[in-house]
Amino acid sequence: MKTIAYIPSGLLLLLCILNFYLGIISQPDPGFAMYIVFGIVYLVLDVLVNSKIRHASWLGFIIPLAVLFVYPVLVDFKHLNPWSSGFMGALDGLVVIYFLYLLLMKL
Predict the structure, then answer these.
(1) pTM of the prediction?
(2) 31 close to 74: Cβ distance less than 8 angstroms
(3) Are 23 and 39 spatial neighbours (Cβ–Cβ below 8 Å)?
(4) Could you give the CA distance from residue 18 to residue 45 in angstroms, rounded to a whole number?
(5) Cα torsion for 73, 74, 75, 81, to the nearest 10°?
(6) Radius of gyration of the chain (CA)
(7) CA 43, 45, 48 angle in degrees (round to 5)?
């Protein structure tokens, strides 16, 4: 695995931890289950990327990109946490950019 591939892998792990943390502290919030599900998805995606599965880079590009578009739709805007949406949205964007770079380097 190239050294640059460790950066998005670390970001995926950070996103996993942050989603679990937000899911635990916001249990009365109606979106807490979504945080737990996204945490599990990021953990599985991180394991896939580190195990060098053939199309894991494509999944690493598509899933965070989909989360960037799905998250505002799933969470009601009245319950939107600015910290989680801003910071984690920026991390999702960085993951998408890194995986796009890795995919373009393979071409």
Answers:
(1) 0.85
(2) yes
(3) yes
(4) 15
(5) -80
(6) 14
(7) 115
